[in-house]
Write a structure and sequence with these properties.
Number of strands: 14
Strand content: 25-35%
Number of helices: 11
Shape: elongated
CATH topology of the largest domain: Rossmann fold
Largest sheet: 6 strands, mixed
Distance between the termini: 26 Å
CATH class of the largest domain: Alpha Beta
Number of domains: 2
Order of helices and strands: HEEEHEEHEHHHEHEHEEHEEEHEH
Helix content: 25-40%
CATH superfamily of the largest domain: P-loop containing nucleotide triphosphate hydrolases
Bound molecules: adenosine-5'-triphosphate, magnesium ion
Length: 333
């Protein structure tokens, strides 16, 4: 977990998203899906995506991520509910809705013997867009595929094939890009490259919705995070708010003798007793600077000693997105 990775420029971009969101670019309401098998994959999902944000849909295998984005993109029919894409109903106004969307699918199904250039050019044509060599060139260059444009797909590495999928999804200049598990199974370096590509797309104004089961990916990339589990959205929150909530740290002292209550001399600290008075817990904000932490904790430890309290062990613990995620997912099982 790397909390330092949200850089200043990113913060600046995030604040550009209006605090009061006027019209969401995607509005999902009451969406349910029961597959023919009878399995209920989505249960009355309500979700709004804001223009220009990166939204990460985080959930374990089988949670319903692919089902949800397949319905939004019009590839799978919903059993109930509706989806508006920039005001266009994705069923009754399918063509207008679909033209706004690019989808990078989870599965790598591609025409193995076609070359990169033709594959991407063809994808643009599918949306009835006029040929535009300059656009295709720009997309391929942005994805570092320009040198490979004459290669057959079968000759590319897995990571390059994934980029071709992104290029295909961008060929018709969509305003909204869905990436279904963009970095599943790719190495660390390529993952960082993909993140960079996604950031660049966002700064060019594209709204991004990505699904992932990597907490680190959601943490690294998203402006907002939605957690989905067993067909239900169990949490939607601004990442910054989530990280602030996660910033609390606990210092736990294992006492030599149990205490009946926290001594009045220590009343100004947020201390509490646990385990029948055998454990003293101090909760503090880890977002304070390191030196700030150290001073506060060493002062606290001195005062604890001065109050005559002896401890045999101490440790610190930081709650993490992973912990919250695991708890959310576990609660519902
Ligand atoms: N065509 C189908 N028929 C019946 N059940 C299906 C079908 N497609 C998906 N499901 C079921 O719906 C649930 C959600 O599947 P989905 O592919 O949306 O999950 P996911 O969150 O994308 O998972 P993963 O992380 O593995 O990609 C799963 O239990 C899956 O078995
Ligand atoms: Mg999936």
């Amino acid at each position: 977990m790397s909390h330092e990775t949200s850089t200043a420029p990113e913060q600046a971009t995030r604040t550009e998203i209006p605090a009061t969101h006027p019209a969401p670019v995607i509005a999902v309401s009451g969406l349910s899906k029961r597959y023919d098998s009878g399995f209920e994959a989505l249960k009355r999902i309500d979700l709004e995506i804001q223009r220009g944000e990166i939204f990460a849909l985080l959930g374990p295998n089988g949670a319903g991520k692919t089902t949800l984005i397949s319905i939004i993109c019009g590839l799978v029919n919903a059993s109930a509910g509706s989806v508006l894409i920039d005001g266009h109903d994705n069923v009754s106004d399918y063509r207008a809705a679909r033209a706004k969307i690019g989808l990078v699918p989870q599965e790598l199904t591609s025409d193995a013997f076609e070359n990169v250039w033709n594959t991407v050019r063809f994808s643009r044509g599918l949306f009835g867009r006029k040929p535009d060599k300059a656009h295709i060139e720009q997309v391929l260059k942005a994805l570092s595929l320009w040198d490979k444009r004459k290669n057959k797909l079968i000759t590319l590495s897995g990571g390059m094939k994934r980029r071709v999928l992104i290029a295909k999804a961008l060929a018709h200049e969509p305003e909204i890009l869905f990436l279904d598990e963009p970095t599943a199974g790719v190495d660390v370096e390529l993952r960082r490259d993909m993140w960079e590509v996604v950031r660049e797309l966002r700064s060019s104004g594209v709204t991004i919705i990505l699904t992932t089961h990597y907490i680190e990916e959601a943490e690294e990339m998203a402006d907002r995070i939605g957690v989905i589990n067993r067909g239900e959205i169990v949490l939607v929150r601004e990442k910054a708010a989530l990280m602030r909530q996660l910033g609390s740290k606990q210092l736990t002292l294992q006492l030599q003798k149990p205490l009946a209550s926290v001594p009045p001399a220590l009343a100004r600290y947020p201390l509490s007793l646990a385990d029948d008075g055998n454990v003293l817990v101090y909760t503090y904000d880890s977002h304070d600077t390191d030196s700030g932490d150290r001073v506060a904790i060493s002062t606290l430890l001195n005062e604890i000693e001065a109050a005559g309290i002896r401890f045999k062990d101490l440790h610190t613990k930081q709650s993490s997105l992973e912990e919250i995620f695991v708890n959310l997912v576990r609660e519902r099982q």
